[in-house]
């Protein structure tokens, strides 16, 4: 899975080292050499898992689809964005999930955590 392009639909085969990568940035991270340029690219569709080649000198809009399963693999790339947020309901409506570190928290009471007096009282019964 590519960490640079979240919606990558194909893998590319690097012509220089003959290895498969999700994107050019993945090749740059793993290899010490630069990605060689070529006019014919080899792709592997992530939907049908079949390989195909495309001549990049005569590339047209109709070439944006996998020839085997018709998957549209040329999409606007979605790159990961750092987001600060919270999961759950809106805190302004239901503040039960918030914890104020400034106030001393009460110890939660559970059947597994009893103080010694409670434990002795139960054993005497």
Automatic annotation (TrEMBL):
Q: Does the keyword GTP-binding apply?
A: no
- Molecular function via GO: zinc ion binding
Q: Name one GO cellular component term.
A: mitochondrial intermembrane space
Q: Which Pfam families does the record associate with it?
A: zf-CHY
Q: Which UniProt keywords apply?
A: Metal-binding, Zinc, Zinc-finger
Q: Can you tell me where the transmembrane regions are? A: none
Limits of the CHY-type domain: 1-71
Q: What is this protein called?
A: CHY-type domain-containing protein
Which organism is the protein's source?
A: Collybiopsis luxurians FD-317 M1
């Amino acid at each position: 899975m590519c960490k640079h392009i979240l919606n990558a639909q194909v893998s590319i085969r690097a012509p220089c080292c003959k290895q498969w990568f999700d994107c050019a940035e993945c090749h740059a991270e793993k290899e010490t050499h630069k990605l060689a340029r070529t006019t014919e690219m080899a792709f592997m569709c992530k939907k049908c898992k079949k390989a195909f080649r495309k001549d990049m000198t005569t590339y047209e809009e109709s070439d944006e689809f996998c020839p085997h399963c018709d998957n549209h693999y040329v999409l606007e790339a979605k790159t990961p964005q750092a987001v600060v947020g919270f999961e759950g309901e809106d805190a302004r409506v239901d503040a039960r999930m918030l914890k104020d570190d400034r106030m001393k928290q009460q110890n939660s009471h559970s059947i597994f955590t009893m103080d010694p007096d409670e434990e002795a009282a139960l054993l005497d019964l």
